[in-house]
Every structure is written in C-alpha cells, then in structure tokens.
Amino acid sequence: xxxxxxxxxxxxxxxxxxxxxxxxxxxxxxxxxxxxxxxxxxxxxxxxxxxxxxxxxxxxxxxxxxxxxxxxxxxxxxxxxxxxxxxxxxxxxxxxxxxxxxxxxxxxxxxxxxxxxxxxxxxxxxxxxxxxxxxxxxxxxxxxxxxxxxxxxxxxxxxxxxxxxxxxxxxxxxxxxxxxxxxxxxxxxxxxxxxxxxxxxxxxxxxxxxxxxxxxxxxxxxxxxxxxxxxxxxxxxxxxxxxxxxxxxxxxxxxxxxxxxxxxxxxxxxxxxxxxxxxxxxxxxxxxxxxxxxx
Length: 295
Hints:
mainly alpha; 13 helices
C-alpha cells in the first residue's frame, strides 16, 4: 500500500512537467512545422497548404547560401579554437601550478556573462575605425608598434564572420578547459608512471595515452560547441548588428518572421535549425547510451 502511494505521488509530481513539456516544447515544434508548410505571409494567419515551397525557396535563396557559408566558417573556427585553447589551459593547470584555483576562476569567468555582454565589450575591442579614430585592439597594436596587426575585424570582406568567432572562443574556451581538466584528473597517475618507466617522454605520453583517453571529452565538447554555433544569434547582433555579410540562419529567421511577417519562411528556417542540431545531438545520445549499456 505504501509503495503504491509513493508511486501515485511520484507520478502526480512529474505530471505537470510532462504536460508543460508536451505543450510548450513538442506542441510548438509541431505547430512550427505546420506553419513552415503553409503560405502564411502577413499578420493574419494563413494555413493554406504550400508543401515544401518554403524549403525550396530557401535553398534557392542567395541569402540563405550566405547564411550556410557563414555558419560553416564560424563553426569550424569557434569549435577548433575553443578545443585548442581549452585543452592547452587544462594541460597547464594540470601541472599543479601555484594559484591554480585563481587561474581556474579567471578562465571560467567569461561563462558567467551572456553573449550579449560579450558582444558589447568585443564590439568596442574590435572597433574597425581607422586613422585618428583608432580604439580597442587596433589602438593597442599601434601603441605597441604592431601596426601589421591593425585590421577591419568583422567588416573585413568575405571573412568578417571569422572574427566574430573570437569573442565566442574567449567565452567558451574556459568551459572547454573545465571539461578537459576533469578528464585529465580522472586519468590514473599509474598510467603515466608506467609509461615513464618504459622510457616514454612527455610528448609520447600525451600522444599515446592521454589524448586517446580524452576522446570522449573531445566528442562531448564538440557536440556542445557545435550546437551553440549553429544557433548563434545574440553575439552577432551585439557585435555588428544586422549585416548581410555576417548573416546566419537565426538572424534570417528573426527578420523573416518579425520584420517581414513571412511566417512560413521563418518557420521553415526554424525547422532546418532544429534538424541541424538534431543531426549533432541524436547520434551523440545514441553513442552515449550504448557506451553506458556496455559498461
């Protein structure tokens, strides 16, 4: 009787959350998918069936081609930069340096602020103004005699989106560092000592023992960073505003839906973003579940 009562109580406690998720997550996903297949344009709802016309229009849209290109560039630079810097910082901290707690806090601090705040700060640091209006990093480079580093940052033709990845790396490399540091601390010290006894140097230990054991951490970090990069929106707006050379799908979706009232097109972009994130997340979840079952 007591077990049955506890079961009923447990179900009653989680039922509101299940209902809320069903309505506000999966229900809205279904509604968005339906809108993406409609001709809704304007403030008044129009659910006239359009099939895949909105999706076909996107893939033939030059602006959406720019969005895909920018997303790929941003993702590659952001993910690789965060992984490299995060791993480097984790290796340095794992050497039991003095003040480790202080440095760890400093590296993790950017995570405590939002992308909006990061964007506002880096917008000043990466001020593209030239001549007598130099400021931020360009002014610092000039004062240090490093004039060759002065550039137009995010206003650079074709590659401006690559510079937007810099503040994203600054914010997320500390998080990656924490992941790698936890992985390094979980590696038994006996493995390193045995390798040293066998005559392996530090590079061989990292190459043959530590890096292979950190592969699950790297995979997790790539998935997390990858899905963040696919949805990037606020950072770009805070740094550069709405500029076509720096356009990404999330900004296009916002402008289509709330500026142009092309609700069908905006919903189609939202569904494509959802699918792109699912391509990253679902295989990772399946891999994780299979690994846990094997253990």
